[in-house]
Here is the input.
Amino acid sequence: MKFFKILFILAVLVPFTQYAQVEVKWSKQLPTDILWQEVTTLGNLVVSSREGLMGIDTETGTISWSNRSLGNLERHAFDELPNSPFFTISTGTNLHMIDQFSGKEVFNSANAGMQTIDSYYLLYDSEAILVAGTDGNGEPLMVSVDMADGKLAWSMKEKFGRIVAANELGNRELLVVTLFNNYKLNADTGDIIWKNSNSKEAAQLDTMGKFGALLKNAAENMSQDIDIQIQYYQPENSDVFYLGSQQERQSGFTSSSGTTINYTNNYNAYSSKDGSLIWDEELTVNGALGHVHFLKEGILVLPDDGNRTKINLYDYQTREGFWGKKGRGIAIKGGVYDYMDSGNGILLVSRTNNKDFLNYLDPVSGTITFDKPVKVDGTVVGIVPLDRSILYITTESMNILDPSSGKELWDKSIQTTPELTAEHEGKIYVFDQNSGIVRVVDLSNGQLSNLSSIALSFEGKERPKRLEIMEDGVFLHSDQNLAKFDLDGALSYQKYYPAPKESGWKRALLYASSVRAAYIGASSYYISGALSAAHNDVRKENEVAGELVAQVGNAYGELGNMASSYAVNAFKQASARLKATKAGLDFMFIMSKKDKDVVLLRISKLTGDVEGEINLGKDREPIYALDDITGQVYYRSTDKELTSYQTR
Here is the structure.
């Protein structure tokens, strides 16, 4: 009997004693206390210490660069700059822009003589950074610095006022759009090639001398704290650009549902050759400033005017409306907040109060093909054009739409999210949150079938957060739960690992997994949905990280289009990381508890079992960073020691 008791005790203890410590890749003593560390979206490790900011070689742990002038920084001073190889550091009123690969300071606002910074633009064709603000006397100042070494190329004190956009035109020329004027500048010297008023009203103020300048200055000052809605548009391969602006049409009226404010949006067309106005009059459309889509026949304007919204196609030269009675447009239910071009037509997404609707526009005939709009649950984030239909997915549901009739293929939409779907070999696998079943959509015919037969229920009141297709099945997980079905629908395993009670353990893990999700989203059907969900999750824990993840999905595409040699390293690294996410990981990290310690567990997706652990001790807020793409963990094991664990 005693022998069997011993066997029973050993069986109970095995799960808590068999976890092997994850292999240490390297461990390095740094010269001073570590305050925090962060893995950038491009995979570089940045460490803040008492005596400086450092870049650490992720393979060896050696210090690859250091900046002793940026010591003792709080985490909120660090902000990665999306779509670039840079991050910024804010110290008081001074802004530093640092190359995360070399540690070079490519911009320092104090060295540039800038007291305040209003805006900055990364000009990759010119290999320059354009910064606008004021000097020590409060006078306007714009500077251009060399992106490679931070040297000042030129500065100018033109009173630009509020800058709306700055774009490279090619031929070493820049277009700068402001509230009142458009400029073309020589990118190498800052010389003004031409300057033109961007409206008749602005031109009129120019003729009024000092009084006109006074009115302009008053308008500029009033606009500083106002979120002025102005959009810049330029069709591809066109020497014409457009500005759209939103204006309040009336003060609004108050009803039981609150105050309603009405808007108009106005558009002007300009020549990029000399900045001159092309149209005699503005194109004025009722509604808030919405989307503009450039078609061969004209400009498609999709405003948001609530229940009064009308969409229309306007002639590029005459501004004449083509659609509807007397060219006044086509009425549509709700205000248009998004659209998606399926190739054969345009899916319009509109909203009235809290209800979302779909309509399908035939841009050739200028007609809405649905007899009545299709009401949907959630916000539409992606579409997949099929042979004769369109699969759409929202933040809450999925269905297939017949674009000619507006009828949905399935009687009931699947209640799901973009993260709980994945495409594999011509099929989309989707977790149905209502039934708890994994379902399969055949993209060749739109047929829907069940993969699993049992309802999946996670412990700890958690729900599945993400679905992934692996070679041997469909993997689902939440923060503390994971499960897998084989491709025949049988449950391979289901596991639960309890969460620690400490509050500070989650941020780095959540941030790392969301960055990975953003890279995955960059090559998926549902990029906007995946990123939206990822950044909202992260934002709950960390506002700065959430803002970054919201934009990181575009970084791959943006860096890939950069002409500058300076962006090559960043592009190569982004490309490699994107490729790594496509290959997938056969494990995941889960934070759990062991006795009174917090442990980071490496869990096999193949079996659901623990393959190793990193013991983070009893820290209420362990200082660690995680790269969920390479599988590397960086932990502050002592005040001055940084330890890297290689988990893949």
Residues 1-17, 525-557 have pLDDT under 50 and may be disordered. The helical segments are 2-17, 200-206, 209-223, 506-521, 527-541, 543-560, 568-583.
